[in-house]
């Protein structure tokens, strides 16, 4: 098992899912929230959120974050998922177009909504999207748990 093999399995898992639980903390107040994400080839995760939300403010104050990506399964033998430690940060305006493109390529329904007539909920969603910020989670450590390969099976990847 090489780092390249682990990275390929992690990337495939990220590609096949769309929701992560983002855990933040500020002033000894932990917080977790579920958000949609996309990722790049370096395994950076990107989500979009209103800068006024608690998790966005936590990232601004303390960039240490943890993330999980997993699915509900009926039994222990089917458990799979990622546990990630990393650094959260706001995506700068110079990088926003590239991140927005990745995000809309993953969430085609959102892309279609933006191209449709902009009224009602579609207009509200579009306006919020434009006012929101993208956040990057740069992973430092990833554990892939995969009980389908044997109970307690895990592989870990440490990134720079």
Structural summary, described in words:
The protein has five helices and eight strands, in the order αββββαββαααββ. It is of the alpha+beta class. Strands 1, 2, 3, 4, 5, 6, 7 and 8 form an eight-stranded antiparallel sheet that branches. A hairpin with a 2-residue loop joins strand 1 (19-26) and strand 2 (29-36). The longest helix is centred in the N-terminal third of the chain and has 13 residues, at 3-15. The chain is globular and about 50 Å long. The mean pLDDT is 93.
Write the layout of secondary structure elements.
Layout: H1 3-15, E1 19-26, E2 29-36, E3 38-39, E4 45-49, H2 54-61, E5 64-70, E6 80-90, H3 96-106, H4 108-115, H5 120-131, E7 133-146, E8 154-158
Antiparallel strand pairs: 1-2, 1-5, 3-4, 4-7, 5-6, 6-7, 7-8
Keywords for this structure?
Pnp Oxidase, Chain A; 8-stranded antiparallel sheet; 160 residues
Task: Summarize the entry for a quick read.
This protein is α+β, with helices and mostly antiparallel strands. The protein has a domain of 106 residues: Pnp Oxidase, Chain A, CATH 2.30.110. The model has no long low-confidence stretch (mean pLDDT 93).
Helical segment tally?
5
| Total beta strands | 8
Shape: globular
- CATH class value of one domain: Mainly Beta
| Percent of residues in helices | 25-40%
What is the CATH third-level topology name of one domain? Pnp Oxidase, Chain A
Gyration radius over CA: 17 Å
| Uncertain ranges | none
Distance between the termini: 19 Å
Bin the strand percentage: 35-45%
CATH superfamily of one domain: Electron Transport, Fmn-binding Protein, Chain A
Mean of residue pLDDT values? 93
Biggest sheet overview: 8 strands, antiparallel
Order of helices and strands: HEEEEHEEHHHEE
Query: What's the CATH architecture of one domain?
Result: Roll
Structural class: alpha+beta
């Amino acid at each position: 098992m090489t780092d390249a093999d682990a990275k390929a399995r992690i990337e495939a898992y990220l590609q096949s899912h769309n929701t992560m639980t983002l855990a933040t903390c500020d002033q000894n107040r932990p917080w977790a929230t579920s958000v949609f994400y996309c990722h790049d080839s370096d395994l950076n995760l990107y989500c979009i959120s209103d800068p006024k939300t608690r998790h966005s403010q936590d990232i601004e104050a303390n960039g240490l974050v943890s993330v999980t990506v997993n699915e509900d399964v009926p039994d222990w033998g089917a458990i799979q998922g990622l546990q990630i430690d990393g650094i959260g940060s706001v995506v700068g305006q110079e990088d926003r177009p590239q991140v927005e493109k990745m995000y809309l390529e993953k969430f085609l329904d959102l892309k279609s909504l933006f191209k449709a007539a902009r009224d009602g909920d579609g207009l509200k969603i579009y306006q919020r999207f434009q006012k929101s910020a993208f956040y990057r989670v740069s992973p430092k450590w990833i554990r892939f748990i995969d009980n389908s390969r044997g109970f307690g099976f895990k592989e870990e990847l440490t990134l720079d």
